[in-house]
Design a protein that fits this description.
heterodimer, A: alpha/beta, six-stranded mixed β-sheet, four-stranded antiparallel β-sheet, 5 helices, globular, B: mainly alpha, ABC transporter involved in vitamin B12 uptake, BtuC
Chain lengths: 260, 297
């Protein structure tokens, strides 16, 4: 559970001068990224701008070639308190090679809070609560194979919430999600934020999550281009499905490039 | 029940049941990770162990276990470090293991092609009481891992990256699955043979998941199917002069086909039921509007 009464200046995630390469290609070229307790930060940018790599390096899934990462004030190398983090990887499906129910998949997110993988009554209750939060309570016993794309994403988020994390890290949670599911996800996230959870999102576009976001970090070619209040989408830009194709002057990169 | 009388049949049945239980219990995690053919690869590698056992005049079973475990660990290491051309490296390992086994058996004084065949296709009737002891010990280890760590193994096999972020020791668990699979291969070697081992790890799981919705039920059902086909195959081979390994695998495939045929109408009726459920939902909306018949002239 998120602690109350702590200062908002506590850095929960701190990337300093982070560099990373994929193959021979530099993907991050010295990124500074700090997320404070209680903040909702969105990492934005075009495909290949390094936003996914930045997030994955923060949780040790991509090795850094330079710079440092701290989680909750602890260097990543010594960080063991994984139950404080709920992670939603970029996936189009929650299914594996063998049938599994929603409850079984979500329960795997609770393992970080259990000893030796034993689920006690409180753990089962937390799993059911997480499934309820994403509005799938009546389908908890169904196979994940029978779900739509948006429902898969809701299962992945419930799995991250099952450990009742203080920090939620979500990699493109809205990709391929239908409008109804998008609204449920936005409502779920709002409840979490109100309860004090810190959130770092990778997003392609702000969409229905826009009112929740305190801060936007825009990446381009592995560098931070903007770090501050979320850019306001105006007119045509605000319409869903708006395809951003026209070029912009380099002096105003903030409002642009988000939807590309 | 006269087939229970000869001691060799008692040993054969015990070995068959143990393999019928543990092969799907490991296999389900391999299928979940979409590495259904990993058991096949380990079987190939174990051949070198069998050959080494003959050459050094030690127990081929224990030598096969040692080499299969080493091979499985190398396969895991290739999966971590050699992402780019991992499949080529695995192919080298498989065929190298197979060729090495044939060569070593040829070089040994005691080994012959007849011996080789008994390891390739199983030789259930020659299971000795020492074999039974080692099979029991190894089977107990496999069951302990696959049941005791089922939640951790499920999480790792379902989504490796997510499992790492929950703090699970993913590398250790992957190695454990690899070692457990290798042990299972060498235990099953006497029953169905190295070339058909993978079938017993994969086919019961594939058959079970035709009609299941949860991992738990799939696990239980595939173990039931595995046990049933190994028992039935062993008994059949006692009365009819047919090779037990091939009989067991063909029976498993028959179960798969039967359950697939059964599943098609089952899935259709499920779809119809969920369709009916969604119809109920859409009917609620027009209820707030004027009744349709009032619009008619």
């Amino acid at each position: 559970m998120p602690e109350t009464g702590s200062t908002t200046t506590d850095p929960v995630i701190a990337l300093r001068g982070a560099t990373a390469t994929l193959g021979a290609r530099p993907v991050l070229r010295g990124i500074d990224l700090t997320v404070h307790r209680g903040e909702v930060a969105a990492l934005l940018g075009a495909n290949g701008s390094g936003k996914s790599t930045a997030v994955r390096s923060a949780i040790g899934q991509v090795p850094l070639t330079g710079g440092s990462v701290e989680l909750f004030g602890t260097p990543l190398r010594r960080f063991r308190d994984w139950a404080r983090i709920g992670y939603v990887p970029q996936r189009t499906t929650a299914a594996g090679g063998v049938p599994a129910t929603i409850r079984e998949v979500v329960a795997s997110g609770r393992l970080s809070r259990t000893k030796l993988g034993l689920l006690r009554r409180a753990d089962r209750a937390a799993v059911d609560r997480a499934i309820g939060l994403v509005g799938l309570a009546d389908r908890a016993g169904d196979s994940v194979d029978a779900l739509s794309g948006g429902q898969h994403q809701r299962v992945l988020i419930a799995r991250a919430l099952a450990a009742e994390p203080e920090l939620l890290i979500m990699d493109e949670p809205m990709a391929g999600v239908d409008l109804a599911s998008q609204e449920i996800l936005a409502a779920t996230l709002r409840d979490q934020v109100e309860a004090g959870t810190t959130v770092l999102l990778v997003l392609h576009e702000l969409g229905p999550l826009e009112p929740l976001i305190d801060r936007a970090i825009v990446l381009r070619d592995g560098c931070v281009m903007h770090d501050g209040p979320p850019p306001k989408a105006l007119g045509q830009h605000a319409l869903p499905g708006h395809d951003h194709v026209h070029p912009h002057a380099a002096s105003e990169p903030v409002r642009t490039g988000l939807l590309s | 029940m006269e087939f229970l009388d000869p001691p060799f049949m008692q040993r054969a049945l015990l070995a068959a049941v143990l393999v019928g239980v543990i092969a799907p219990a490991v296999g389900i995690y391999l299928v979940q990770r979409r590495q259904a053919l990993m058991g096949d690869g380990i079987g190939h590698i174990a051949m070198t162990g069998v050959g080494l056992g003959f050459l050094l005049s030690t127990s081929p079973v224990w030598m096969a276990t040692a080499v299969a475990v080493a091979g499985a660990v190398v396969m895991e290491l290739i999966r971590w470090y050699g992402r780019t051309r991992g499949d080529i490296a695995l192919a080298m390992l498989f065929y190298g293991g197979m060729a090495g086994g044939v060569m070593l058996i040829h070089l040994s004084d005691t080994g012959s092609n007849a011996n080789l065949t008994s390891y390739l296709f199983g030789s259930l009737s020659t299971v000795s009481s020492e074999d039974i002891t080692s099979i029991c010990v190894l089977a107990a280890f496999v069951l302990l891992v696959t049941l005791g760590l089922r939640r951790q193994l499920f999480a790792v096999s379902q989504d490796e990256e997510f499992a790492r972020v929950t703090g699970l020791p993913v590398r250790a668990l992957n190695l454990l699955v690899a070692v457990t699979a290798a042990v299972t291969v060498t235990v099953a070697m006497r029953v169905v043979g190295l070339l058909l081992v993978s079938a017993l790890m994969v086919v019961p799981v594939a058959a079970a998941q035709q009609i299941t919705r949860s991992f738990k039920v799939t696990f239980v059902l595939s173990v039931v199917i595995g046990t049933a086909v190994t028992l039935a195959g062993t008994v059949t081979s006692y009365y009819q002069d047919v090779p037990p390994g091939a009989t067991i695998v063909l029976l498993a495939i028959a179960v798969f086909v039967a359950l697939t045929l059964l599943a098609t109408p089952l899935a259709r009726s499920r779809a119809r039921r969920s369709e009916a459920a969604s119809e109920e939902c859409t009917l609620e909306v027009p209820a707030s509007r004027p009744a349709p018949d009032s619009l008619r002239v």
